[in-house]
Amino acid sequence: MTTLFDKIWAEHSVARNDSGEDLIYIDRHLVQEVSSPQAFASMAEAGRSLRSPRRHIAVQDHNVPTTADRLSNIPNAESREQIATLRRNTRRTGMRLFDLDHPLQGIVHVIAPELGYVLPGSTVVCGDSHSATLGALGALAWGIGTSEVGHVMSTQSLWMRKPKTMGVRISGQLSAGVYAKDLALALIHHIGTSGGTGHGIEYLGPLVQALSMEARLTLCNMTIEAGSRFGLIAPDAITLAYLRERVQGAAREHFEQAAQAWAALRTDETADYDRYVEFDADGIMPLVTWGTTPADSAPFSGRVGDGIVPRDDADRDRLRESLAYMGLEHGQPLASVPIDVAFIGSCTNGRLEDLRAAAQVVRGRRVAAGVRALVVPGSTSVKRAAETEGLAQVFVDAGFEWRESGCSMCIGMNGDSLMPGQRCASTSNRNFENRQGQGGRTHLMSPAAVAASALRGRLADPREYLA
Ligand SMILES: CC(C)[C@H](C(=O)O)[C@@H](O)C(=O)O
Ligand code: SF4
Fold first, then answer.
1. Which of helix, strand or coil describes residue 59?
2. Going by DSSP bridges, is the β-strand pair 13-16/22-25 parallel, antiparallel, or unpaired?
3. One fold for both 4-160 and 164-235+260-280?
4. Contact 277, 167 (CB under 8 A)
5. Of residues 414, 358, 391, the one with CA closest to residue 179
6. Alpha-helix runs per DSSP H in 33-179
7. What is the C-alpha separation between 149 and 136, in angstroms, rounded?
8. If we measure between CA atoms, which residue out of 442, 346, 282 comes closest to residue 133?
């Protein structure tokens, strides 16, 4: 009796070495411009080529400007260089590239599902820690380091020690104004930022089954912030409906046959996970982080520092440092905290459903004076769809900047970044020090909450606008 994780692992394990590592066959590999240059270079130096060129796709995302003139204007020299390097490397090796001007360009974890590139039961890797996002489709998907990227390119395999398994069963219901992002933040608050370390997490239970595919992608995306490299959800009718419209090639031609095989991909009822957590999502409120880890969250009606009980001096020091960095006082009401910037985007919350939720709050209203608000669609496809649906106009009318797609202010590599001391309501996944720009202060929350905060000019509960 085995878990889904173990089944996919066993299916892809082709050898085992003396130190207990398995050689895992990698079905598909995603490449971006930040973590690939060294891997391409060492492969070229060793005189190796791609073992299976068709099993890789590359995309420009972290460094791409989000301004309309980006094809002719990449002001940052380092960004320009990384983008040019990926262009050169993909041309030389015959790897397919979604470049800046490609109609399907976008953040790697956003475009992979859109392209139908991730299939249930497969193994997918990328030199990027948020690759767990793709486990939402029932694949084993995880982030790897640059040297591993080179190994995958030249051998289509990886040596890996099998992690332990962890089942996270989620029950209950999300009330209005509460989204997958709040669920992820609540869960990380509950199990901690190392709660999943060494484990591959499978999310299961009635609430997970009720989530849309986009919400599942958000939940799995945040898995790495709980310390686990793998977030997995067994494929079901929602997965199949999503894939039916998107898969290409043989999987499209033989979809019904494939669907039958995928439907069997689940954890056996009597299988044991190494660790099992039951989480009841009833009563979760819209959440906002106040500190510098994604576990430091509280409801908007709460106060800075709520829910954290320092266990020792080190904990107390960490708390003091994080509040000093954030420029906040312990016990300060969260709803009183003013913001400078509102950012809607990233691989966590840059999909169409996210933009719809934010637009619902924004429609007919105006961004508060003095707040810089921007929407950066997770992919060019999302951007197009949002324009067709009229969402873009809703944002523009309210005073938001409507940008081209990319990672943008999630990480601030492309020139979209916070100035020192600026405070940002953000839909991204990391509130670490300097993440969105040197000295920038990040508050993580859902897209609807960022929208509400942009309108209010301070941290705001989206339900204030959803009545
Ligand atoms: C730059 C990249 C390698 C990095 C990652 O590994 O996740 C980035 O995407 C991030 O979100 O911090
Ligand atoms: S959007 Fe942010 S988290 Fe996602 S891949 Fe880009 S930088 Fe990493």
1. strand
2. antiparallel
3. no
4. yes
5. 358
6. 37-45, 77-93, 108-114, 146-155
7. 22
8. 346
| pLDDT value for 308 | 86
> What is the 196 CA–ligand 1 centroid distance (Å)?
19
Q: Where are the domains of the chain?
A: 4-160, 164-235+260-280, 288-466
Q: Which CATH architecture has domain 288-466?
A: 2-Layer Sandwich (3.30)
Q: Compute, in angstroms, the gap from residue 356 CA to the centroid of ligand 2.
A: 20
Compute the distance between CA of residue 237 and CA of residue 28 in angstroms, rounded to an integer.
23
Q: Ligand 2 pocket check: which of 347, 375, 428 to mutate, most ligand atoms within 8 Å of Cβ?
A: 347
Closest CA to 100 of 30, 33, 28: 33
Nearest residue by C-alpha to atom 8 in ligand 1 = 128
| Rounded distance between C-alpha atoms, residue 209 and residue 302, angstroms | 30
Residue with tokens 């966590």: 348
Nearest bound ligand to the CA of residue 414: 2
Residues 406-416 have pLDDT tens digits of 999 999 999 99
Residue count (the chain): 467
Q: Which CATH architecture has domain 4-160?
A: 2-Layer Sandwich (3.30)
Question: Ligand 1 atom closest to Cα of 35?
Answer: 3
Q: Which residues, including other chains, have CB under 8 Å from residue 418's CB and lie 6 or more apart?
A: 340, 341, 409, 412, 424, 436, 437, 439, 440, 441, 442
- Distance, in Å, from the CA atom of 79 to the CA atom of 84, rounded to the nearest integer, reads 9
Q: Which residues line ligand 1 (CB under 6 A)?
A: 34-35, 62, 128-130, 143, 411
357-384 pLDDT, tens per residue?
999 999 999 999 999 999 999 999 999 9
Query: Do the Cβ atoms of 365 and 373 come closer than 8 Å?
Result: no
Which sign does the torsion angle of CA 198, 202, 208, 213 carry? positive
- Tens of pLDDT along 290-324? 999 999 999 999 999 998 888 999 999 999 999 99
> CATH classification of 164-235+260-280, choosing from 3.40.50.300, 3.40.1060.10, 3.90.1150.10, 3.30.720.120?
3.40.1060.10
